[in-house]
Amino acid sequence: MKAVERSTPKCSAGLMEQERIIAEYQRRACEVDPELYAPWNAAQCLMLSERKRVAAQMLHRLGAFPRREHLCLEVGVGSLGWLPDLLSWGVPACNLAGIELKQDRLEAAKFSLPSVDLRCGDASQMPWEAGRFRLIVCSTVFSSILEHALRMRVASEMIRVLAPGGVVVWYDLAVNNPWNRNVRRVSKRDLLRYFPEFKYNVTSITLAPPIARTVAPASVSLAVALSAVPILRTHLLAVMVRSLA
Question: What is the pLDDT of residue 11?
Fold first, then answer.
């Protein structure tokens, strides 16, 4: 009886956190100008192309670039996410999978990628067997989770479905957004806590979005130059290799 009493608040807190995340996504869908993330937005193009290029280089240097036969998963697909990048790297749609908390965002992804194994659900309880995936991509997911315990459960589940020797590509906020209390940064120390016993390659990346949105429409070259200044970068990109043991 005591064990039930201890576990119930954790489950309730996790459910409340998921409901808060869904409500925040719904608020943003109503209040945030969709052109901020449109494919013709210069700042968005700069951010996406940089993270794809740097991630590919990091994977290649570690000898961990995905092969055609590797099974790959994206945690937090959004409307599309990294899956098109994985396709462009040569991984066929039949070897791709993704999980997304919001049904409407998942449906948008399914429309574009009907052959990908896309599931709507909670990333702390994924429907795949242990050790299934060779590569897992997780982008701006943990910064949307404010509750430490839920972050830990999602990380634990990612480790469960990742094969020994598999790789996690991680991209997320490294600094807090003073205008948005519904996100919280993920530090290098946090990464070590969430994914122990991994081999890490971590770099700062992404020109601060307010600066990029001001500068990039006028001069992409200037925005690229500014992104070389570490203090102006707001995100972490990490390639983490799980031990074989």
Answer: 59
Report the helix count and the strand count for the chain, using DSSP H and E: 8, 7
Closest to 50 measured CA to CA, from 215, 210, 170, 227: 227
Paired tokens of 49? 């192309």
In 10 A of CB 230, how many CB atoms?
Answer: 9
- As a three-state string, the secondary structure of 172-193 is EECCCCCCCCCCCCCCHHHHHH
The pLDDT, as a whole number, for residue 31 is 79
Q: What is the pLDDT of residue 13?
A: 61
Q: What does the alpha-carbon distance between residue 79 and residue 82 come to, in Å, rounded to a whole number?
A: 10
Asked if pLDDT for residue 38 goes beyond 60, the answer is yes
Q: Could you tell me how far CA 226 lies from the centroid of its own chain?
A: 24
2-242, superfamily in CATH? Vaccinia Virus protein VP39 (3.40.50.150)
At residue 104, what is the residue type? D
Residue 169: in which H helix or E strand, if any?
strand 162-173
The structure tokens listed for 157 are 């589940």
Please count the CA atoms within 13 angstroms of the CA of 118 that sit on its side-chain side.
26
pLDDT at residue 17, as a whole number: 80
Q: Supply the pTM of this predicted model.
A: 0.89
Residue 43: its H or E element: helix 42-61
Kindly list the distances between the CA atom of residue 58 and the CA atoms of 176, 190, 192, 202, in Å, as whole numbers in the listed order.
25, 20, 18, 9
Supply the mean pLDDT for the chain: 90
pLDDT number for residue 2: 34
